[in-house]
Design brief:
Helicase, Ruva Protein, domain 3; 3 domains; 8 helices; DNA polymerase, domain 1; alpha+beta; OB fold (Dihydrolipoamide Acetyltransferase, E2P)
């Protein structure tokens, strides 16, 4: 319903930011990663938003970038992961690190977040990995073009991580294919994100 809010940042606390737009203050629940990226009180700020309507409350969640918003949507679509846990995970790990943990099957990285035990972390990795594999088998008949690294090693993990962040498998493969596949997965993801952001 609300795609984003942009206006003066009038209040900030560890998990909440209030942005005044046209005389209305929108209270957004935020991650610690988003809080670190916000400007000082009184400056203009913009957050990508997601509204959650429950029987007893209407909540607005705000994110510094679309990657974090996409990651939050994917996390909260998993059974047992509510908005509070989604914010907790993205406060502890960046969307890139969540995607890398999923691609590598490293559920222990997710247990660093408050409210995430080993069983829930394993479910998150399993369900998000399934989504990554489904993206690679879409109806457009995606195949890895020649010259683009595929099934092995760091490049494949980087492509998986980028698809978890919401990029199509072809976009992710094209970006990673322009990089040196011997680089660390984190470096490949970071550099590919820079390329994809410039499009």
């Amino acid at each position: 319903m609300l795609y984003s809010v942009k206006g003066e940042l009038i209040h900030l606390e560890p998990r909440v930011a209030v942005i005044s737009c046209g005389g209305v203050g929108f209270r957004c629940q935020i991650t610690m990663n988003t809080a670190r990226q916000l400007p000082s009180i009184g400056s203009e700020a913009m957050l990508y938003t997601m509204m959650n309507v429950r029987e007893d409350a209407i909540e607005l969640f705000g994110f510094a970038d679309q990657g974090e918003l996409n990651s939050f949507k994917q996390l909260t679509a998993i059974s047992g992961v509510g908005p509070k846990v989604g914010l907790s995970i993205l406060s502890e790990l960046s969307p890139e690190k969540v995607a890398l943990a999923v691609a590598a099957g490293d559920y222990k990285a997710l247990t660093k977040a408050a409210g995430v035990g080993p069983k829930l972390a394993q479910r998150i990795v399993l369900e998000m990995k399934d989504k990554v594999q489904a993206l690679a088998r879409t109806d457009d008949g995606f195949t890895v073009p020649s010259g683009i690294p595929s099934a092995a090693g760091n490049a494949a993990q980087a492509v998986d991580a980028l698809t978890v962040l919401g990029f199509s498998a072809s976009e992710a493969s094209a970006a990673v294919g322009k990089l040196d596949s011997s680089l660390a997965v984190e470096v490949l993801v970071r550099d590919a994100l820079k390329m994809l952001a410039r499009r």
